[in-house]
Amino acid sequence: MTGLPLLSIAIWLPIVGGLLVLATGSDRNAGLARLLAMVVAVAGFMVTVPLYIGFDTTTSDMQFTELRQWIPRFNINYQLGVDGISVLFILLNSFITPLVVLAGWKVIEEKAAQYMAAFLIMSGLMNGIFSALDAVLFYVFFEASLIPMYIIIGVWGGPNRVYAAFKFFLYTLLGSLLMLVALIYLFFQSGFSFNLLDWHQLRIPLTAQIYLFLAFLMAFAVKVPMWPVHTWLPDAHVEAPTGGSVVLAAIMLKLGAYGFLRFSLPIAPDASRELAWMMIALSLTAVVYIGFVALVQSDMKKLIAYSSISHMGFVTLGFFIFNSLGVEGALVQMISHGFISGAMFLCVGVLYDRMHSRQIADYGGVVNTMPRFAALFMFFAMANAGLPATSGFVGEFMVILGAVQFNFWVGFAAATTLILGAAYTLWMYKRVVFGAVANHHVAELADIDAREFAILGLLALCVLGMGLYPFPFTEVMHASVENLLKHVAVPKF
Amino acid sequence: MTDMQQLYLLVPLAPLAGAIIAGFFGKAIGRAGAHWVTILGVFVSLVASWFIYQDVERGNLFNGTVYTWATSGGLSFEVGFLIDKLTVTMMLVVTFVSLMVHIYTIGYMVHDEDNWPADSLAGRNSYQRFFAYISLFTFSMLMLVMSNNFLQLFFGWEAVGLVSYLLIGFWSTRPTAIYANLKAFLVNRVGDFGFLLGIGLIAAYCGTLNYTEVFALSQVLSGTTVELIPGLPWMLVTVVCICLFIGAMGKSAQFPLHVWLPDSMEGPTPISALIHAATMVTAGIFMVARMSPLFELSDAALSFVIVIGAITAFFMALIAIVQTDIKRVVAYSTLSQLGYMTVALGASAYSAAMFHLATHAFFKAVLFLGAGSVIIAMHHEQDMRRMGGLRKYMPITYLTVLIGALANAGFPPFAGFFSKDSIIEAVRLSTTPGASFAYLMVLAGVFVGGLYSFRLVFFAFHGKERFRDAEPHGHDDHGHHGPVEPKESPWVVTVPLILLAIPSVIAGWVMIGPALFGNYFGGAIYIAPEHPAIARMAADFHGAMGMIAHGLMTLPFWLALAGAATAWYLYIARPDLPAVIKQKSGVLARILERKYGFDEFNEWFFAGGARLLGRGLWKVGDQTLIDGLVVNGSAKLIGWVASIVRLFQSGYIYQYAFSMIIGVFVLLTLWMNRV
C-alpha cells in the first residue's frame, strides 16, 4: 500500500484533533469547535477507508502492521495491525463518530468544545483497542477509553448521572483488574513478551487456561455486557446524553466481544471449549430473560438498552458454538447492532430533545405530527426486530443457523428472539408512534429537520445496504475466522 | 444474461419500481401519478408473467442464481429464481389479482382523507402511500414464489408479513387497527419461529439452502433419525416438515395460529382481498406444495397437516355463521377455505390444493371486493344488520357477489365446485392417517359453507332495507348523517369485480383437466407412489362435464344445497328465526360468538403471562438479586468491613503498639510450633 501508517493516523488523528477542539476553549467559540470537530471526524473516517479497500481477504495475517519500541526494558512495543476480525470495527467506529458529532450539534449548548473533544478522543482510543497487537498497549487503550465515557455521562448526563457514571466506571474497572493479572501471567509464560500473536501460539496447561479464561471473562463479560453483569448498562444509557448512548451501544459494547475473539478463544482455546456450555447458557439467558425484561420497560432508553443486551447475547452465543456460521454471524451482528442500536438511540434522542421525556406513557400518536420521523423509526424498529433485508436479520439468521447446527435446542432458544424482539420493539413503537395524538405536547411536535434526517437517513442506508448485500462484510472475515476456529479446534495443552 | 432471465427479473422489479416512485415521490407525482405508475408496474409484471408462462409451456424451465448474498461456513446464501409451472401459476394469480386490486383501489381510497383526523400529518399523501404499499407487497410476494432457495423464501415470507403489518395498521390512528397489526405480526412471528428452525435443520443436515439440492438430498433427511427429546427417535424429515408447516400455519392462518386473520379486517378492504384472501395467506399452501418432495417422505407430517387443516376448515366455517360484520364473514370463510387447501396438502393432493388456491383467489377476491363495494355504498358501514335489499341498488355488485358465493359454496359449474370437490374426493381416497376425520370435517364444512355464503347474500342484498331505519352512525365522522341512499359503485370498482367474476365462473372447468390430472405441474410436485389419491381420481375422471354430472349425484352438492336452503329459510322465509335459535342455543351461540375464546386466552395467557414474567425477572432478578444483593450488597459488605477495620485505626499509639505486640506473639507461636 501507500506505506502511510494508516492505523496510527486512525488513532492519533482524532485524538490530536480532539485536543485542538478542546483548545478552542469556552462556549464563545462553540461554532468553531463544532466545525473543527466535524472536519476531524470526517477526516478520521476518510483515513480508515483505505484500510477496507486495501485489505487482502485471502490471508488471516495481520495487515497494515506497525512496530516501534515503546518500553524496551519490559519488551513492550507500540505494535499495531488488523485482520478480518478487527478491521470492520475500526471503520464502524470512525463512521459513527461524525454522526455523533452531528447529533450533538445543536443539542449540546454547554461546554460544546469539551463534549466534541471527548468523543473524538474516545474514537481514537477505541481505534487503538481494535488495532493494538501488544497487550500493554491494548490495556492502556482499553482502560483509557473509559475516561471520556465517564466524563460524558458525568458531565452531560441526566439527573442521576453521578450514580450511573460511578456504577459504569467501577463495574468495568473491577472487571479489567483481573485481566491485568492475566496479562502479567502471560508475560512470564511467554518468556517476557507482550506480543499477542506470540501468546496465540502458547501452550498452557488446562487448569491455567481456565483461570486465564475466567480472568478475561470478568473483564469482557462486563463490557459486552453478559447476563448477570449487565445491570450497569440500562442505568448508564438512561443517564447518558444521546451521543454517549450511541457510542456506548454502537462501539463500546463491542470491545468486550472483540476481547473474547482476540484473547479468550485463541489464548485459552481448551478452556473455551470446556466452558462453552456456560457461555452458551449465559448467552441464551441474555437472549430470553432480557427479552422478557425489555418487554415491560416503561422508559424507552431502558427498553433499547435491554434490547442491546439481548442482541449482544447473540454475539456471545455465536462465538461459543465454534462454527463459522456462528462466529461470522456474531461479527455481522456486532456491526449491524452498531448501526441499529445507534439509530434507535438517536430516534429516542430526537424525541427527548423535543419532549424531555423518555417515558413511553408520555407519548402516543407521534405519527400525526412527525410522519417522516415515524417512517424512519419504523424502519429501525423493524431492523431491531430482525426483519430480512435489514442488517439486523443477517447476523441473527446466521447465528440461529449455526446454533441449530450445533444443537437444535440451543437454536430453539435463540430463535425465540424472533417473537420477543418483535414484541418489545413493535409494542413500544405502537405506544409511542401510532394512535391518536395523546396530549398537547405531542400535538406541538415538529418533524425532524434536515440535520436529523441526514443522520438517520445515512444509518438507514447502511442498515438496508448491509441487509441486501452482506457479502462484502462476510468476505472480509472468512480467512481470519477460519484461522481462529483452527486455534480452537486443536488441543493446545 | 439471456432475454428470458431479464424478463424474470422484470417481474418482481417492475412493481418494486412502482412502489419506490409512489412511496418516495408521492407528493411530487400526485394521486394520479401514483396510481398510474404502480398500475403500470403491476401490468408490466402481469404481461411478463404471461410470456414466461408461455415459455414454460414450451418446456423452458429455469433455476439459477441472481446474486450471492453472503457466504459462510460452506453455505452459500443466494438470491435466485426457480421458474417452473408451480411458480408461473402463482405469478399469474398474484399479478392478475394485484392488478385488479390496484384498479379497484382508485375507487375505494378516493376519499381516504376522510379516514384521518383533520389535522393529522399521518394522513398526508395516504393515497399514494397505499399504492406504494400494495405494489411493495406484490414485489415481496413475487420474490417469495419465484425463489429457488430457502433464504429468499424466508425473505419474501417476512417481507409480505411486513407489508401486511403496515396495511392492517394503515389507518394508524385507530386503536383497533394498530392492535390488529401488532397481533398479526406477532402471531406470524410465532409461525416464522418454527419456519426458521426448519430452515436451520435443512442447512445443518443438507449443507445447502437451494431447493433442488435439498430435494436431491431428501433421502439423507428421511434416513436420519434425531432424538430431540431423549428416548424419542424421530425421522429428521418429519421434524423438518413439521417445523416448516408451523410457518405455514402462521402465514396461512391455520388453527391455532388463525387468530390474526379476522382482526386483519381492520385494514382497508382492497388489501383484505389481495393479501388476506387471494395471495399472502396462500403462501403457506404454496410453500408446502413446493416442498412436496420433503413432505411426501413423512406420513407423520402429512397426518399433522391434514388434521390441522380439517380443524380449520370446519370450525372456522362455523364462526362465519354468527358474524354480522360483512368482512368478517368473508374472513372466516377464507380461514375455512385455507383449511380445505391444507387438508388437500395433507392428502398428498398438492395439485388439488394449488387448484383450489387459484380458484379461491378469484372468487374470494370477488367476495371481498364486493363487500368493499357494499361498504362504499353504505358509507363505511360494515354491519349486515344495517343492510338488506341492496340488490336492486347495486346490480353489478350483487351479481358478482352471488357468483362469488356460488363458487365459494361449491355449486357446479362454478370454479369452487371443481376445486373443492376434488379436495373432498382426494381426502376420501387418501391413506394419510387422520384422513377419515378430515373427510368428516370437510363434508360437514360444505353444508356450513353453503349456509354462511348464502346468509351473506340474503342478509345483505335481499329482504328488508334495514339501512332506512338505522340511526345516524358511522365511525368516520365525515358528515354522512341520516339514512344513506345506496348506489352502484363507479367503474373502477365494478370492472375489477367483473373481471374477477369471470374466472370465478370458468376457471374450474377450464383448468381442472390439465391442473389436476394432466401432469400440468410436471416435476414441480412430487407424489410418492404410496399416496395414490390423485392417481386414483385421475383414473375416474372423464372430463369436466362428467364431473358436473357426477357431482350432482354426490353428497357434497346436496349438502351445499341444504346449506343454501337453510340460509334462505332463516333469512328470507322466516327472518325472525335466527334470533330465536340464538336464544335457544345459549352456550353454543356464545362459544361461536366468542370465537371459542382464543383471543381471550391468548391475551390472558401469552400476552399477560409474558408481561408478568418480564416484570418478575426484572424486579426480582435484576433489581433485587443482582443489583440489590450482589452489586449493592458487595458495596455494603465493603462498607461493613471498612467500618470494622476503621476501629483499628483509632489513632492512639498504645492501641497500635498493643496490637503489634499481640501480632508478634502470635507469629512467634506459629513459627515455633511449625512442623
Overview of this protein structure:
The complex is a heterodimer of chains A (about 500) and B (about 675). Chain A has helices at about 5-25, 30-45, 50-55, 85-105, 110-130, 135-145, 145-155, 160-190, 195-200, 205-225, 230-240, 240-265, 270-275, 275-295, 300-320, 325-355, 370-385, 390-405, 410-415, 415-430, 440-445, 450-470, 470-490, and strands at about 65-70, 75-80. The model of chain A has no long low-confidence stretch (mean pLDDT about 90). By secondary structure, chain A is mainly α. Chain A has 23 helices and two strands. In chain A, helix 5 (about 110-130) packs parallel to helix 12 (about 240-265). Chain B is globular and about 115 Å long. Residues about 475-480 of chain B have low confidence and may be disordered. Helices cover about 70% and strands about 5% of the residues of chain B. Chain B has about 675 residues and is mostly helical. Chain B has a two-stranded antiparallel ribbon with strand order 1-2. At the A-B interface, helix 14, helix 16, helix 17, helix 18 and helix 19 of A face strand 1, helix 5, helix 6 and helix 26 of B.
Give the spatial strand order of the biggest sheet of chain B: 1-2
The H/E string of chain A reads HHHEEHHHHHHHHHHHHHHHHHHHH
User: What is the oligomer described by this structure?
Assistant: heterodimer
Shape of chain B: globular
As a percent range, the share of strand residues of chain A is under 5%
The description of the largest β-sheet of chain A is: 2 strands, antiparallel
Roughly what is the average pLDDT of chain B, rounded to an integer? Answer: 86
Q: Give the low-pLDDT segments of chain A.
A: none
Tell me which protein chains meet in the greatest interface and how many residues each side has.
Answer: A-B, 64 and 55 residues
